[in-house]
Amino acid sequence: MKIQCETCGKRYEYPQDEFCPYCGCYNDPPRAKTGLRTSSAFTAASAPRPQASYGRPASSAKTAKKQPAFSPSTQKKSAGKRTNLAGIIVVVVIVFCFALPTLLGLILQMVLSDQPEPAYPEPEYSAAVYNEEEGLWDTGEAPAPDWFLETVPASVINFDGDEIGQAGGVALYLNSCGLLEGSGTEPILVEGEKLIFLDLTAELYDDETFQEYGFLLPYLLEGEDYGYWVEPSFLDGIQYDFVPFDPDTLLFQPTVTGKLLYAVPEDWEQFTLYYEDWEGNTFAKTIYL
C-alpha cells in the first residue's frame, strides 16, 4: 500500500517503510493520503505521533520562524554601555559635590555685595590738646593729684651689702631696707598695709644655671602673714627717686642694683626674708623694722 508523506509529498510503500525514505518523517497511515476514506472517529489526538530520531528535519522546522536571541557579544556590549553610563553618573555626582560649596559661596558673596553698607555715626573727637612740653593731653579739666613716693629717712636700716645667699646662679646681697610714704601709696596699698623697700644687689656667678632656671624673687614671711611684691607696673604715673630692681638686667650685664617694693601688714616690726632656687636651696635672713 502506497501512502503520501504529509511532509514532503512523496509517495512510498507503507508496509515496507514506516518512515518516509525521502524526508525521514513518520506518517500515520490513517492520516496519510491513501485515497481511502478514513473514519471520522479517528482523530489526531487518539493517534500518537512519535518524533523521528533520524533523517532530515520536518519541513515545519524549516518553516518555523527563528526567534531572536542575544549573542554573548551583544550581551557584553549592553553590559559595557550600562557600566559606562554608571561611571559617568558617579563622576558627575562627585564633581557636583566638590563644586557645590564654591558655588554657594559665590552666590552668598553676590547676595552680600548687593547689600548697602551700614551707615556708621561719625566719631565724636575730643577737644583735648596735646601738650608736647609735658607729654600730656590737656583736657581742660582739673589736673590729677601728683602721686609721689619718698623714703622715710628714720626708717632706713643699712646692711652694707650683707650676702643673703647664692641660688639659681645668682648671688643676692642686702644693702638696706626702710619705709616709703607719700600720696603714691594710695593706688598701691589697702587699708592696714604699709609700703617697705629692700635695696638689693644681684650678681651673676653661673650664667648657664641662670639661663636655665631664671631668678626667683625673695619673699617675706612673718608667722602666717606674707608680704606682697609690688610689680613695677604699679608705679606708672607715680613720681619716685629710686631705681626699681629688675632681674632681667642680668641678661645683659653681670650685676644689677635696685629696690624691691613689698606691701606688708602695718603692724609688722620684723620679718624673715627667704631666698631660694628651683633645686630647693633656701636662704633666710631676719630683718627688724
Structure, explained:
The chain is an alpha+beta fold and 289 residues long. It has two domains: 1-63, no CATH class; 147-288, Immunoglobulin-like (Sandwich). It is 19% helix and 30% strand. It has three helices and 15 strands. Strands 6, 7, 8, 9, 10, 11, 13, 14 and 15 form a nine-stranded antiparallel sheet that branches. The chain starts with a strand and ends with a strand.
CATH class of the largest domain: Mainly Beta
Helix amount = 10-25%
Would you tell me which CATH topology of the largest domain applies? Immunoglobulin-like
Number of domains: 2
How many β-strand runs? 15
Question: Which architecture of the largest domain does the CATH hierarchy give at level 2?
Answer: Sandwich
Structure classification:
alpha+beta
Q: In what range is the share of β-strand residues?
A: 25-35%
For this entry, give a set of tags.
289 residues; Immunoglobulin-like; 2 domains; two-stranded antiparallel sheet; 15 strands; rod-shaped
Short synopsis of the structure:
The chain is α+β, with helices and mostly antiparallel strands and 289 residues long.
Write the layout of secondary structure elements.
Layout: E1 2-4, E2 11-13, H1 59-63, H2 72-113, E3 129-131, E4 136-138, E5 147-148, E6 150-151, E7 157-167, E8 170-181, E9 193-204, H3 207-213, E10 219-222, E11 225-230, E12 238-239, E13 255-265, E14 270-276, E15 282-288
Parallel strand pairs: 5-12
Antiparallel strand pairs: 1-2, 3-4, 6-8, 7-8, 8-9, 9-13, 10-11, 10-14, 11-13, 14-15
